[in-house]
């Protein structure tokens, strides 16, 4: 399998972005120790945002190189290549930003980012999955 230079650059950027997830883990330890005041809703949303960021970034690193193994229409390739990483930004942002402030009792308007991210994830997974199945089938003898 030959990985294209732009794919290599994207994968490097995604791996570097995991450093922000690592710092988010440090933030969570401070919340857990009480050094940063947070109510139950905030704690739950902070944990969910952190977990979604990590899992979706790692999923991106796993899926993106596979797309270099098949010939795909540009639109399918781009949606498959960027849908998951975009979700890795939007979904955690929805969790974190929707509970900012002192003692929020329910998520605020930025919660919509979670649903936009979920749509991006669904489209990215569908494009990558269908693209790989169809592209792989086209390579059969």
TrEMBL record:
Swiss-Prot/TrEMBL keywords: Membrane, Transmembrane, Transmembrane helix
Keyword set includes Membrane: yes
TM region(s), chain numbering: 6-28, 49-67, 79-100, 112-138
Protein name: Uncharacterized protein
Organism expressing this protein natively: Protaetiibacter mangrovi
Classification lineage: Bacteria, Bacillati, Actinomycetota, Actinomycetes, Micrococcales
């Amino acid at each position: 399998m030959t990985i294209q230079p732009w794919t290599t650059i994207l994968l490097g950027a995604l791996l570097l972005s995991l450093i922000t997830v690592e710092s988010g883990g440090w933030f969570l330890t401070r919340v857990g120790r009480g050094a940063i005041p947070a109510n139950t809703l905030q704690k739950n949303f902070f944990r969910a945002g952190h977990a979604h960021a990590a899992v979706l970034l790692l999923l991106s690193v796993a899926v993106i190189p596979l797309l270099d193994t098949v010939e795909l229409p540009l639109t399918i390739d781009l949606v498959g290549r960027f849908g998951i990483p975009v979700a890795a930004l939007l979904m955690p942002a929805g969790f974190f930003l929707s509970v900012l402030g002192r003692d929020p009792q329910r998520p605020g308007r930025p919660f919509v980012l979670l649903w936009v991210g979920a749509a991006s994830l669904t489209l990215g997974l569908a494009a990558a999955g269908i693209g790989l199945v169809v592209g792989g089938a086209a390579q059969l003898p």
